[in-house]
Amino acid sequence: MSNDSIETPRIRPWTLTTERIIIAGVLAAITIILGIVPNLGFIPLPNAVGNATIEHIPTIVSGIVAGPIIGIISGLIFGVLAFFRATDPFFKDPTVSIVPRLFIGLVSWAVFAGLVRINRDLAAAVAGFAGAATNTILVVSALIIRGYFPAAVIIPTVIVQAIFEAVIAAILTVILVRIFYVLEERVVHAPDKKPREQLPY
Amino acid sequence: MLLTRSLVSNSRINIMIELQNVTFNYSAQGERNVAPALQDISLRIPEGQTVAIIGHNGSGKSTLTKLISAIVFPQSGSITIDGLRVEAGGKDLWSIRERVGVVFQNPDDQLIAGTVIDEVAFGPENLGLPRSEIAERVHEAMATMDLLDAAQLSLSELSVSMKQRVAIAGVLAMRPRYLVLDEPTTMISGQTVRQLLATLHRLARERGMAIIYITHFMQEIADFERVIAMDGGHVLMDGSPATVFARADELRAVGLDVPVVTQLGHDLSQQGWTQIPPIVLSSEQLVAAFQSDQTTSAEPGLDALSNLPSSEIHSEDSTPLFDLRAISYIHRNNTPFAQEALHDFTLSVRTGEAVALVGATGSGKSTLIDLLAGLIKPASGRFYFGGENTGVNTFKMTRLRACVGVVFQSPESQIFEETVGKDVSFGPRQQKLPLHESRRLVQSSLEAVGLPYEDFRSRYTYALSGGQKRRVAIAGVLALEPKVIIFDEPMAGLDPRGRAELFALIRALRQREGLTICYASSSLKEVSELVDTVHILDKGRIVLSGTPREILTHAQQLAELDIALPEASQLALSLRHAIPSLRTDVLDLAELETALLKVHSVTL
Amino acid sequence: MFELSRYVTFGQYVNNDSILARMDPRAKLVCAILLIVLVSFLNTFPVFFLCLIFCTILHLASRISIGYILRSLKPFFLFLIIAFIFEVLFYAPARAPHWIWHWWFLGLSWAGITASLLTMIRVIFLYYLATMLTFTTSLVDLTDGLESLVSPLQKLGIPVNALVMVLVIALKFVPIFVNEVERLMKAQAARGLHFDQGNLLQRISKMALLLIPLFVSGFQKVKVLNVAMEARCYGSHRGWHRTKLRALHYKRFDLFALALTIVVCILLITVNILTA
């Protein structure tokens, strides 16, 4: 509902509401957009493997703002999309492309829910980092278990990219979660972060 | 048993929407300190009645619709729909929402499914009806809205007015008793609005559905049985259109107005045209009045332009700012969806000129704007900017973009930073200007659009109203200190007050030395007082060019292109049935009155 | 320059009215899932030869030109070759094979080549089957089939209907968001942003300038759509259920296809065990 979500006490994490279903739908649409708009879903990295992806960020955000069930649903959609769109042969294996993705939103939600009492920004940062790390670790593990690559080869290859992705995810998650709550709480004015003389406005 | 019977008879008595002393506040959280959205409202709307609700943004009319469709709940007082009580967590909630159908302002906000038929079926599916019943209702609703041929089309390919019809069909398929429409005509215009209104009145007449129609536009409500004017959360007036419009001064005091035709009737009867009724609600009434009056000449009386100052002839010595020669552009070139947007297009705009580019959707207007702004390159033809050929390799498109500012159609997509200050300073930051210079530009731009710098610089962009967003978007363009500003449908989606404010702002910008203005629109409504030259576009070419007055002489042709005319011209065009010699190139009501008096006096 | 819509080839359904395109989506999904799961565990050359025969028949039934499929496979093949070389060079089974050439952890062996070849062939078949499904099934059919297949799970408390509604809403927003990104890019370019310049950090901040407004607009649309859906009696509370206008009907061919798939599966398993 448009106005009473603020007044009602927080909905329990494992329940589904219409609003949460819509959040999942909107974020799934953004996942699709990140996949189909050229240059939007990834950051070109100057290394051998190529690009750092940010496609998992909507899934992380969905877990944080809409709870574990929506987190899993978003992960499933992300995984199925990855499965169908993959040009990389190993991602045509559902155990690599789909299964690991189910846990991204779940982990992000758990981390955020655990830390939010300390500080919301901190919780979002750690949840973003953990979500991205879950993605990398589980996908890489699946690649190793399925015998596509030996561990000694793949881990050194992706480690830089993995850390970079996790850091980017942490930063973006903080920004996005902050915006979500700014909208939710209908705040009008932003605080100035620097003295006036150092701002361009 | 006795109890149930009394309940049944009770609900039979109360076939209506009933509000008693309803007060509703939005949550006070956040910084917004708003007055109650509705204060102590009592109302009754029986079945089958057509009710128009008028009032400004913030007058409480949108809240009223949310209350009667059981989306929000009153804090005090009671609302009953056919005897069912609207309350949070109430058991009748679903039954109420089934009875009250709501159509929202922007169809994109309410359409859910992928195809037309799935969308119309969405409501009945939610009601858990058997399949045959759903099929029957869907067919009926699509037939009513004339959508049977479009059943399998994908929603994303439809035009706004088509989407609007699908949205209404989706609500009708639930067979509501009360149909609430929240400002359904902000996104559509002209012929489409008239069709929509005709359909609504037909529904009320044939099915006994109550129509609750919320609008800013007074000319749409003359045919309704009842008009409720709201202001500041109160009901200001409640009565027939004639009684409400009779209180024109009170309406104006709260920023509302009477329809132009009513005003005209009033003025004319003041001047002694006794055959005109005191409150005129439609042009048909005026026509009838004129036809009964035998003194009016039936033969063409005036030659259109002779005694009006003709357009200035501008000297052609200076090089034009924009010079487009035989330009073509094809959308989605080399794909199966390729479509020619501009065809052999020629246009020239001088420095300091204000031009309007007017055409219906698909006329090539948006492509032209992208082209002028240096965002796309023509497929063929030559495009000179300030005498330089932009097609040569040495010409940098970024130079053109630095001189041309664009205010795009939807301000939501124009503002991309978190705060107003950051957004307005985006251009200066890209140019790497010193901070104090950037601050100066932000301040002067915000003040130029009438937003107090100190208050707005740190505001979140998401918390702005539609009108404010548009101003911030304009400020962001002004901060670039452009030589040209292009406005793309700047009035779309704004209420009359927002329109008036923006109109004044653009007029003020026009006075700036050397600033060129291009104003793209699908209607001629605001255009005549804002620009020197109007170009009418159709199918990727210019079909008419001239001063606003010259253009308006072709009123009939414009109407055929579905270009909405200014109200005075529109009225003149409809009065032509009775007075064939009446000119249509009238810019405002005063000119229309003069023209009418002239025709009248010919025979006196 | 800013025509994003041309990249949106989302869903690749070829509506040629072949028997595969006309199949009931439920039957088709079951067959596809069975085959995909099974193929991902096959690992002998004879069994893949059988697969090839089966896929040839499948392809003839789909009436899609082989050129069209190959074109969609083009970017895939390059990856495949690189992956093959990697696999061979890094082949490291538990017991050391007979090396043809060996250096540190890189090596070349017949066993390695065979194993990698099998992996690649398997991946090609997986790709082919998944592609075939998307080429012969429209998105609406796919969602419908999925919904009715997994609807028994709803009784177990797994929110299947919610999942399907999430998909429907996502599909609704994709064209709207594509439009918005396009407008944002135009607005930013018009205000002096150069898209393809800058170092890593600048590139990231430019991407954020597109990404963040997209999320903001998404979050704002949630509230609005929530009101619209509830006004049309969409619920998510206990005991609420919805019915469907669309009906799916099994035809004789669907049952035949299911039976055939099961037979093929059994055959493949048997051959795989026998030749392992």
From TrEMBL, chain A:
It comes from the Bacteria. Gene3D superfamilies: 1.10.1760.20. It holds the Pfam family ECF_trnsprt. The chain crosses the membrane at residues 21-40, 60-84, 96-116, 122-145, 152-181. Keywords: Membrane, Transmembrane, Transmembrane helix. InterPro entries: ECF_trnsprt_substrate-spec. GO terms for molecular function: transmembrane transporter activity. This is Membrane protein. It comes from Dictyobacter arantiisoli.
From TrEMBL, chain C:
Its main location: membrane. It holds the Pfam family CbiQ. It comes from Dictyobacter arantiisoli. It is found in: Membrane. GO terms for cellular component: plasma membrane. This is Energy-coupling factor transporter transmembrane protein EcfT. Keywords: Membrane, Transmembrane, Transmembrane helix. It is a multi-pass membrane protein.
